[in-house]
Input
Amino acid sequence: MARAGRIWPLRLYAGLLLAVLAVNAAGFALTETLRRLGPPPLGQAVTYSTLVTDADGRLLRPFITRDGYWRLPVTAKEVDPRFLAMLIAYEDKRFYAHGGIDAQALLRAVWQALSHGRVVSGGSTLTMQVARLLEPRPQRGLKAKLAEMIRAIQLERSLSKRQILDLYLAVAPYGGNVEGIRAASLAYFGKEPRRLSTAESALLVALPQAPETRRPDRFPARAAEARNRVIARLAGQGAINADQAAAASAEDAPKGRLAFPMLSAHVAERLARPAPPGSVVVTTISRDLQQSLETLARERALAIGSGTAAAIIVVDNATGAVRAHVGGTGYFDSQRAGQLDLALALRSPGSALKPFIYGLAFEDGIVHPETLIDDRAVRYGAYAPENFDDTFHGTVSVRTALQQSLNVPALQVLDEVGPDRLAARLVNAGVRLRLPENAGPGLAVGLGGAGVRLVDLAQLYVALARNGKPVALSWQPGSAAPEQPLRRLLEPQAAWMIADVLKGAPPPPNALGGQIAFKPGTS
Output
């Protein structure tokens, strides 16, 4: 008996020694694993699409990342709370309670796998999914799962719950090269994820589980089935009520993928090109105005005929901020040179410079709006100008001559003012005037005999609204001042008289007369 009593302490010591060795071995293995894994990725390496927005931060155009993905920055604050609630209820209902690993969910997953002989549920938390997305591993298995769990714990220790959720919302896969809920919402619903229906939210919850086999653009039936399973499960949990579930299940699911926004495409391309990848480039553009004018330009160009293109510039007279910039009638319309920004292309201004001819004459006291002037056949050397209707109108007032855009009176006044002086005034006001090679300004400048860009014409007309004082056009808030200071285009009284004359010009069809100063054109 005494001998047996001595054996027990030996066995106890041996057991304790083995336990210590096991703990040390496990600690060494964990330390070695952590060493091999290295520092946890916290999302710093994630690259996002460069975005171009309007003045209010609304998306005009996103650009694909260099690695070929549509991955738009987004935070939980920018996502419908209904989606967030459904996501957590479906994927990780103890998200805000666990430290990266949900032991209860893991035990349930193991038990279900043993009971059914197959994997029924994965037991992964949202944090574990983020860890896998930030550090994808070529092979799946127990070793990869353990590494994923370790990374999840590290993420929880380094980031807040909101930051982890933001990462999931930004990088979750949604099929093809679409990543993140914002890109997915735009691709499948054509809208930002701030307001999502129950059905839309359910689909966006379901897609990341099997993004390639549930893609609405390739497998719409599977996508709808997966969405409905999410709806049914959430209804069973009480996360949504029966009426919501029935309505959501009956809602049509998307059957394709929509194009990403491409408003003000020319401006977006020009401003995004020098910006660092992932930048958010803010413009002065108004998204609603831009969208309506792009539609208008496209419809009118198509109505006029094949090959016709149009460009539109809208500027805030007070600041020079460009509120809409339509560079063409379809960025990918090769028939109309859609990728050429017509607002920046040199073209003949036609009769658009006539108001400034008369403005200089008003300054000099040569004429005033009620001065009578002859509209008759005249010749300047070999040059014999005619009116657009091939007729002459006799004696008319300067007001009438400008309102009807008559050619001969304008050239008579320009001959008095001097083409050189007109050209110098325009250039000093910031306009790029392109004259024929080796030629100086002549009378033909008054009828379109020089190259001018639409943006330059807009700058001239903005000066009229500013009592003759020009301002540089800007496409971004806080744009740099022009290289050369702009000089006054017209004296205030002359600018006012020109605006008053144009206010009485015949308005376009369906427009009220006397409300806006119009320059009628004949080109």
